[in-house]
Amino acid sequence: MSEDARVGEVRRMIYDYVRSPSLRHIRDGYALNKLAIDIVRSIDRGNSIWRKWDGQREFLLKSCLRCWIPLPALLEALNELPGPKLTKTDVEQRLRQMEEDQSEYARDRQRDFCMEIYEREKAEGTELIAIASLIREQLEQLEEREREEQMEAYRKRQEQDRVAREHRLLSGADIGWTQIAGSTAWYCRVNARTFRLVPTANKRWSLSRVKTVDDAEKADILGTYSGRSDATKAVKQMAYQPEPRW
């Protein structure tokens, strides 16, 4: 790749980066580091030992990462671009090297999803770069849906666990810190004694002793702590001291 071509590629990468509407993203250390790595790799391609690969071929191959594009179709599209003829081995090994460099690997569980899009768009006559772009776009949406489903499943498991712990607390069993639905307070029972922990305005925690979770107004204040861990240590001692007078 000529010097002008490398400069143009770096200019394009920086332009794409600063198009982000989020200043937070632009200033993000991880994103900046990734941009720097991409720029260095782009410049290094000018002296690459991969002699058959110019900017166009590199761009097309990079666009096809993770997309499960069939190798014969990819080879044909790459050989339609200017440059020496590529072999199947050329493409396979350059693709593997690029996957390692970019840490973008085709996932087996996404193969059928990608192939369905590829076959449908190929039948319509869509060119390969457009198919790859569509697949990557659809993959992002798929993975976002999967993340949301995983988070929802996690929230449901958390709520189920909270409800089970609440029932255990209300049944009179000893249990660690547990929240009651709709309350900011935390309750625990140790040695058949119930303790209540409430966040204060100054970001501390007020610890009290109660007979039941409904005894908020009758709470026996025991102390204020900087965190729940400190309150837990105090409870472990208080729970086995002689019963105070009520």
In short:
The chain has 246 residues and is an alpha+beta fold. It has helices at 3-18, 23-27, 29-44, 55-63, 71-79, 88-102, 111-124, 128-170, 228-238, and strands spanning 175-179, 186-190, 193-199, 205-210, 220-225.
Could you walk me through the main structural features you see in this protein, from its secondary elements to its overall organization?
This protein is an alpha+beta fold and 246 residues long. It has 3 domains: 1-47; 53-162, no CATH class; 172-238, no CATH class. Helix content is 56%, strand content 12%. Strand 2 and strand 3 form a beta hairpin. Helix 1 runs antiparallel to helix 3 and helix 7 (111-124) packs antiparallel against helix 8. The longest helix has 43 residues, at 128-170. The chain is elongated, with a radius of gyration of 30 Å. The mean pLDDT is 86.
Considering the chains and any ligands shown, give keywords for the structure.
246 residues, alpha+beta, 3 domains, five-stranded antiparallel sheet, 56% helix, elongated
Protein topology:
Elements: H1 3-18, H2 23-27, H3 29-44, H4 55-63, H5 71-79, H6 88-102, H7 111-124, H8 128-170, E1 175-179, E2 186-190, E3 193-199, E4 205-210, E5 220-225, H9 228-238
Antiparallel strand pairs: 1-2, 2-3, 3-4, 4-5
Helix pairs in contact: 1-3, 7-8
